[in-house]
Amino acid sequence: MKTNLKKYAVIGALICALPFASFAQYDNSMQPADPGDTVISAEDAQLDSAEAQQVVPPDQAPVSTQVFYDQLSPYGQWVNMATYGYVWIPSAVPGFTPYSTNGHWVYTEYGWTWVSDYSWGWAPFHYGRWQYDANYGWFWIPDTYWGPAWVCWRHCDGYYGWAPLGWGMNISVGYYGDYGIPSAWWVFCGDRYITDRHIYRYYLPRKHCDYLYAHSTVVGITHYDDRHKVTYAAGPRREDVAAITHATVKRIEVHPTVKPAQRFDNQHLHIYKPEVTQNNKDNSRPAPAQHVEINQVPKRTDYYRAPVNNYQAPQHTEPQRQEPQRQQAPQRQEPQRQAPQRQAPAPARSMDGGGGGGRGHR
């Protein structure tokens, strides 16, 4: 009986391991994580020097959410939704997904921080919340608190995953759940590529996300901002990532700027992160200069449902074997045999020249 139990236990363990074993093809084709260039270019050095002369004063006057309405208008459309008020739909590439498309992770004093490649990335990835609508895709809802990334983190053996926090979701000090974030919002990649500058190459295809979500646990590490009385997810421990990647995880310094912009120079993240309030100085409510009602927005279902993952496993297909073409033997021309024409028998010739058949006489 004990032998049978051990046998079944081994078989069960193998069955459970099969889905993860199927991901081995991704690991085998991957290169070591690319942390990016560690040298600051001459141009970045000059910009650093110029920005150093414009140090943000610690008591800089707060700005209102009007800064979002003004600065993001050229890059998307402000829409009035009954549930959320004014929301912003970016004019982004097909398949755009927040904290996934055009960006990467770096480790800062605030934890894992999303560095966007979009010039407008200083705002929607560090303030507010993202929400998804089946008809209109991803849209952003402004808020006033800054964070390195408003996401939730998960981990399972060999993989990290993250997803944006939806509207009304806040990380608590006793953070241990993922607040019911839909599994379709999650992005997973090999954990040893979390520091890669081209992390999008290693996103797992969507068909694996449900399984990874079900077999992963929440990374419950948080950072509490005592000044603003707000908590956010800090992501994996720096020591854990260093052990997984077998490399030193560099800590990037965050340098606040005085103007709405962001720039990453491999050593510092220069980003606009002001104190934001809900109302203007005259206590009026901020609003976009132009907006449309939700019923005026064309549905973009096909536009936004494109796959978020860019990495595809190499296809190992056997080349089709080409059978050698055999030359056809020349058709043998059989000689045409003409049947001999039968000659009609000549009429019997009379020896006497007569026409009768009698026997001639000599």
Keywords:
5-stranded mixed beta sheet; 4-stranded antiparallel beta sheet; 7 helices; alpha/beta; single chain; 362 residues
Structure description:
- This protein has 362 residues and is α/β, with parallel strands linked by helices.
- The chain has one domain.
- The protein contains 7 helices and 18 strands.
- The strands form 6 sheets. A 5-stranded mixed sheet has the order 5-4-14-16-15, with no helix packed on it. Strands 10-9-8-11 form a 4-stranded antiparallel sheet. It has a 3-stranded mixed sheet with strand order 3-2-18, with no helix packed on it.
- The chain is globular, with a radius of gyration of 39 Å.
- Residues 9-30, 302-325 and 345-362 have low confidence and may be disordered.
Number of E-state strands? 18
How would you sum up the major sheet?
Answer: 5 strands, mixed
Structural class: alpha/beta
Strand fraction equals: 15-25%
Radius of gyration: 39 Å
Structure summarized in a few sentences:
The chain contains seven helices and 18 strands. It is an alpha/beta fold and 362 residues long. It has one domain.
Topology overview:
Blueprint: H1 2-21, H2 24-28, H3 42-52, E1 63-64, H4 66-72, E2 76-81, E3 85-90, E4 103-108, E5 111-116, E6 129-133, E7 137-141, E8 151-156, E9 159-164, E10 187-190, H5 209-214, E11 217-218, E12 222-225, E13 230-233, H6 238-245, E14 251-256, E15 262-264, E16 268-271, E17 276-277, E18 292-293, H7 301-304
Parallel strand pairs: 1-17, 2-18, 4-14, 14-16
Antiparallel strand pairs: 2-3, 4-5, 6-7, 8-9, 8-11, 9-10, 12-13, 15-16
